[in-house]
Design goal:
One of its GO terms (biological process) is 'de novo' AMP biosynthetic process. Belongs to the adenylosuccinate synthetase family. Pathway: Purine metabolism; AMP biosynthesis via de novo pathway; AMP from IMP: step 1/2. It comes from Cutibacterium granulosum DSM 20700. The chain is globular, with a radius of gyration of 22 Å. Helix content is 31%, strand content 20%. The chain is built from 13 helices and 20 strands. The strands form five sheets. The chain has a ten-stranded mixed β-sheet, with helices on both faces. The protein has 428 residues and is α/β, with parallel strands linked by helices. The longest helix has 21 residues. It folds into three domains: 161 residues, Adenylosuccinate Synthetase, subunit A, domain 1 (Adenylosuccinate Synthetase, Chain A, domain 1), CATH 3.40.440.10; 94 residues, Adenylosuccinate Synthetase, subunit A, domain 2 (Orthogonal Bundle), CATH 1.10.300.10; 158 residues, Adenylosuccinate Synthetase, Chain A, domain 3 (Alpha-Beta Complex). Helix 3 crosses helix 4. Bound molecules: guanosine-5'-diphosphate, 6-O-phosphoryl inosine monophosphate (IMO) and magnesium ion. The site of 6-O-phosphoryl inosine monophosphate has 23 residues, from helix 4.
């Protein structure tokens, strides 16, 4: 012990990279359990900014071993490019340990992601185009390629050919594209086989043993609760389980091994891609938040949609994931706003609710009910203790705690590693 999960409590990009980095120094294993290189986790160390896509952000800490669990979908080109790019920047990190059961994103998954999005037109999801959905579809459809398949060429060949047979029919007949050559795909995958071979292990046994030995295991969530395939705003979601439960199914440790679940939430709300977003600001105040918060995607560079803090959204994440703590990021971005609106409930077809509605169509009709909290003008980027924050700022944090039903154990007051207010230890 302990097993700690860090996960997004909104729609992604809450600052999971920064929160992970806060405790990474004391972490023995840093583990990705879901998603793939659709993630973009930023860590700022002095003048250096690192954006990690597939590798866990904790890999930057020399004392922790990076692990990609079975729930992750791995683009091998991206993984090796990320490792090599770190090396070129003088950050030599060991190759991550990889689950033999993790699925692989192939070039045909990327192609299918892009053509299906184009085909959907106005009804598109707004995916990152990284092949995530098609790779998970193949997994569930039992025609996926797993890491272990790379070590048996004849099995790999059979699987790729079988999978491509159906996809090529669709590509040519429905999407008016050229068929994809199986040999090229197989050669591309095999080119990584020898480099990964020494690092492919039974990651479930490894992590259970680590927890038995009292090592600190950090499960680094990607995406977020409201992008979860089951609990998110379906169909505007990703295709995996970023929720806390995903850390168990995505790595092979049981629920009793988890001691802490730390939900990461921004002091306001952002979303990338399509889907409902009740507190979204479509006027100049949304643009002001985007500029103040630098809200442009770490993976695709897309401008993020911005809106006020939605306590209903975060409360559901706290509840479903049994969050023990919340780390509130980007509080500094709200400095200078005279009265800060916070969404405390919705009006849906004339009825008031304080919790997420049961059905998706109700959520699409939800109109936010706001409470207005007094703002502050003082620069808080140098604050390190609660006492350093202006009274109205502390009141904002306390009110959010009441509304979401969870203690706020850390507060981000800037992107830098040291720019945090520690309230409760995130690790002990
Ligand atoms: P993640 O995907 O959850 O790891 O979040 P991203 O890295 O995609 O986006 C978060 C952005 O906010 C990054 O640019 C971070 O450097 C930045 N950031 C994180 N915490 C804070 C904070 O407390 N204040 C400010 N101003 N920026 C922050
Ligand atoms: P991190 O880990 C924000 C969104 C996409 C799209 C939907 C489905 O950095 O918080 P996908 O490519 O996964 O099929 O896209 O999910 N999305 C994210 N939004 N942060 C992320 O990751 C995201 N990963 C996926 O924009 O709406
Ligand atoms: Mg991100």
């Amino acid at each position: 012990m302990p097993g700690i999960i860090v996960m997004g409590a909104q729609w992604g990009d809450e600052g999971k990279g920064k929160a992970t980095d806060q405790i990474a120094e004391r972490v023995d294993y840093c583990v990705r359990y879901s998603g793939g290189n659709n993630a973009g986790h930023t860590v700022v160390v002095g003048d250096d900014t690192f954006v990690m896509h597939l590798l866990p952000a904790g890999i930057l800490n020399p004392n922790s071993t990076a692990v990609l669990g079975n729930g992750v979908v791995i683009d091998l080109d991206v993984m090796h490019d990320e490792l090599d790019a770190l090396g070129k920047r003088g950050v030599e990190v060991p190759h991550p340990l990889i689950s033999a059961n993790a699925h692989i994103i192939t070039p045909y998954h990327q192609t299918m992601d892009r053509v299906t999005e184009r085909f959907l037109g106005k009804r598109r999801i707004g995916t990152t185009g990284r092949g995530i959905g098609p790779a998970y579809s193949d997994k569930v459809n039992r025609i996926g390629i797993r890491v272990q398949d790379l070590f048996d060429e004849s099995i790999l060949r059979q699987k790729v050919e079988a999978s491509l047979e159906r996809k090529n029919q669709a590509l040519v007949k429905i999407y008016n594209r050229r068929a994809i050559d199986a040999n090229q795909v197989i050669d591309g995958l095999l080119s990584h086989a020898e480099r990964i071979r020494p690092h492919v292990v039974d990651t479930s046994r490894l992590l259970n043993k680590a927890l038995d030995d009292d090592k600190v295991v950090l499960f680094e969530g990607a995406q977020a609760h409201h992008l979860d395939i089951d609990f998110g705003t379906y169909p505007y979601v990703t295709s995996s389980s970023p929720i806390a439960g995903g850390a168990c199914t995505g790595t092979g440790v049981g629920p009793t091994r988890i001691d802490r679940v730390i939900g990461i939430a921004k002091a306001y709300t952002t979303r990338v891609g399509q889907g409902p977003f009740p507190t979204e600001l479509l006027d100049e105040s949304g643009e002001a938040l985007r500029q103040a918060g630098g809200e442009f995607g770490a993976t695709t560079g897309r401008p993020r949609r911005c809106g006020w803090f939605d306590a209903v959204v975060v409360e559901q994440a706290v509840n479903v994931n049994s969050a023990t703590d919340v780390f509130l990021t980007k509080l500094d971005v709200l400095t200078g706003i005279e009265k800060i609106p916070v969404c405390v409930g919705y009006e849906i077809d004339g009825e008031r609710t304080d919790v997420m509605p049961t059905t998706q169509s109700q959520f699409h009709h939800a109109k936010p009910v706001y409470e207005y909290l007094p703002g502050w003008t003082e620069d808080i980027t140098g604050a390190r203790r609660l006492d350093d924050l202006p009274t109205t700022c502390r009141r904002y944090v306390e009110r959010l705690e009441e509304l979401i039903g969870c203690r706020i154990s850390g507060i981000g007051v800037g992107p830098g590693r040291e720019q945090s207010v520690a309230v409760n230890s995130l690790i002990d």
